[in-house]
Amino acid sequence: MSEQSCLFCKIIAKQIPVDFVHQDDRSVVIRDINPQAPTHLLVIPLEHIESLDEASQKEEELLGHLLRVAARVAKGEGLGESGYRSVINTGAGVGQSVFHLHVHVLGGRSMNWPPG
Predict the structure, then answer these.
(1) What's the rounded Cα separation, in Å, for the pair 1 and 32?
(2) Residue 102 is a catalytic residue
(3) Helix, strand, coil distribution of the chain in percent, nearest 5
(4) How far apart are CA 44 and CA 50, in angstroms?
(5) At residue 89, what are phi and psi to the nearest 5 degrees?
(6) Could you say which of 40, 100, 102, 104 is catalytic?
(7) Yes or no: is domain 3-107 CATH 3.30.428.10?
(8) Which pTM does this prediction carry?
(9) How many angstroms separate the Cα of 91 from the Cα of each of 23, 109, 110?
């Protein structure tokens, strides 16, 4: 998928209006439009990377940043006490529907293990 047709790239470029939960110089956080839990946030890097498989060693610091942002926004949403799940889907077969790397932050309900 090209960056020009990428939904998240359009959101980042403010071509599609959304309310940002968080913004910094490397990422944005939005609410999922099809939430799978009472709280369902998406942590999205500004840089277009199709999936975790496409991330290289140079993105290691960015990947760590995304996880720290996920923790901060989860705590900000009141999930620190009850817990939350952070998920990165990689590939259509496991549910990746937007091919721009992102971290799902889900919480506010009980979740089973294994997921699925």
Answers:
(1) 20
(2) yes
(3) 30, 20, 50
(4) 11
(5) -85, 135
(6) 102
(7) yes
(8) 0.95
(9) 26, 26, 25
